[in-house]
Amino acid sequence: MRTDLMRKGAAVVAAALMALSVGSAYAQTQGMERRDDRRDDRAGARATKQACKAGDEKSRPECRQMKREVKQQGRQDGGADTPSGQ
């Protein structure tokens, strides 16, 4: 009976620790949120440029311009993942 109580207590403590660790994965300040948004914008622009280069129908300057447009769109709309034109 005592071991059952110990097991239940250990399970409760483990569940509480897991729940607390999940909550700390999110941004804690507005600055962190802005940084995460910028990182997402850069990653989206990078992916756009790579897809453009893989397509072979556009030149390097055209792919660079597409990347710039995606980054600028991210700045203007507050960090949404996809440009409004798509």
TrEMBL record:
Residues 32-44, 54-74 have a biased composition (Basic and acidic residues). Keywords: Signal. Residues 27-86 are annotated as: Disordered. Residues 1-27 form the signal peptide. This is PsiF repeat-containing protein. It comes from Plasticicumulans lactativorans. The lineage of its organism: Bacteria, Pseudomonadati, Pseudomonadota, Gammaproteobacteria, Candidatus Competibacteraceae.
